[in-house]
C-alpha cells in the first residue's frame, strides 16, 4: 500500500475539492480528471530488442519526460498475455525481472510513471471477462496474432471444420484467441486516452476502440474511453536476417535482432552479418534494397533530430561510392553509442536486490490497483453489478 504520509495526503485530497494532486511519495498525478492518460504494455518474453526499444520503450520514456503534471502514464509488464503461449515458470519470473530492469534502463521512472506487472492488478482479468461478453467471435477470428503464433495462413478460420483444418482447433487455446480482449481491458480500465505502440499493434487498438464504442452504446453512457493510437516513427524495425519480416523476440535466429543489452562486440558481429545485397554503393529504397534500407532506418531513428528523413541521412552521409562495409561499421557504432548507457543502467538495475525491486514494483502496482478498482466499480455499478 501507499506509505502513511501518501495515504494521509491522498485522503486529504479526496476530501477537499482538489482536482489535481501529485502524490508526494510517487510524484505521478492522481488527479480525478487527468489531462491525458497514456498506457502501454510489453510482454515479458526476454530482453527487449531494437524493435521494442525504438518502437515502444524509447517513445514511452520520451512521452514521460515531456509529460505535463496532470498527465498520467502507466506502463505494464503484461505477464498474463505472455502465458497465452506455454512458459517455463522460472524463466517467466526471470523475464519479468529483466523487463522491470529494462524499464528503468531506458529511463522510465517509477516516480513519474506507474510501472507495474499486469498480474498484480486483478481488475485487468475481471474487466476482460466483462468485455468478453461484448466481443464478437467473428471479429476475433479475423485478428492476425493467433494465426501468426500458430503459423497459420492469414485466411485461417477457427470455425473451419474441414478435415484438413480440424487438427488446428484443439491447439488454439481460448486465452490466445481472446488475447485482444485482455489487451482492450488493459487499456480501457484506466480510461486511457493515448496508447503508444509499434505498427503491429494497430489491429488490436482498433478492436479496443470498437469494443469501447459498442459497450458505451449498450449502456447509453460514456463509460469507456475509445483510445487514440500513437504509432511510433520507428513503427516497424525489420529483422537483420530477413529484412522483409519484422524484428521479433520469437525468431529462432538470435542474429536477426539486437538486444538492448548486447555488448559492442555483439552489436558489431550481428550488423556485420546482417543480410544486405550485392548492389554497389549505399542508397535508400525499401522495396529494392530492404536490408540496406533497414540499416539506414535504424541509424536514422537514433538520429531523428539531425536528419529530416532516412533519404536525407543517406544523401548527407553516404553515396554510390560508399561500401556496405563502411555503412555497417557506422550503423553498429551508432547503435553502440546509444545503447551503452542503457546496458549499464540495465546491469545496475539487475544487481538490485530482489526485495528492493519487488518493493518498487508493488508500490507502483498499489497505485494501479487503486485507479483500476475505482474505475471498475463505476463500470460494474452502471451494469447493475454493484449494491450501491
Ligand atoms: P510486444 O510485447 O510484442 O511488443 C511491445 C511493443 O514493442 C513494439 N514492437 C515493435 N516496434 C517496432 N518494430 C518492431 N520490430 C517491433 N516489435 C515489437 C510493439 O508494437 C509493442 O508496442 N500485445 C502487446 C502488449 C500489450 C499492450 C497492451 C500494448 C498488452 N496489452 C495494451 C499496448 C496496450 C504485445 O504483444 O507487445
UniProtKB/TrEMBL annotation:
<keyword id="KW-0030">Aminoacyl-tRNA synthetase</keyword>
<keyword id="KW-0067">ATP-binding</keyword>
<dbReference type="InterPro" id="IPR002306">
    <property type="entry name" value="Trp-tRNA-ligase"/>
</dbReference>
<comment type="similarity">
    <text>Belongs to the class-I aminoacyl-tRNA synthetase family.</text>
</comment>
<dbReference type="GO" id="GO:0005524">
    <property type="term" value="F:ATP binding"/>
</dbReference>
<keyword id="KW-0547">Nucleotide-binding</keyword>
<dbReference type="GO" id="GO:0070183">
    <property type="term" value="P:mitochondrial tryptophanyl-tRNA aminoacylation"/>
</dbReference>
<dbReference type="InterPro" id="IPR014729">
    <property type="entry name" value="Rossmann-like_a/b/a_fold"/>
</dbReference>
<keyword id="KW-0436">Ligase</keyword>
<dbReference type="InterPro" id="IPR001412">
    <property type="entry name" value="aa-tRNA-synth_I_CS"/>
</dbReference>
<dbReference type="Pfam" id="PF00579">
    <property type="entry name" value="tRNA-synt_1b"/>
</dbReference>
<keyword id="KW-0648">Protein biosynthesis</keyword>
<dbReference type="InterPro" id="IPR050203">
    <property type="entry name" value="Trp-tRNA_synthetase"/>
</dbReference>
<dbReference type="GO" id="GO:0005759">
    <property type="term" value="C:mitochondrial matrix"/>
</dbReference>
<dbReference type="GO" id="GO:0004830">
    <property type="term" value="F:tryptophan-tRNA ligase activity"/>
</dbReference>
<protein>
    <recommendedName>
        <fullName>Tryptophan--tRNA ligase, mitochondrial</fullName>
        <ecNumber>6.1.1.2</ecNumber>
    </recommendedName>
</protein>
<dbReference type="InterPro" id="IPR002305">
    <property type="entry name" value="aa-tRNA-synth_Ic"/>
</dbReference>
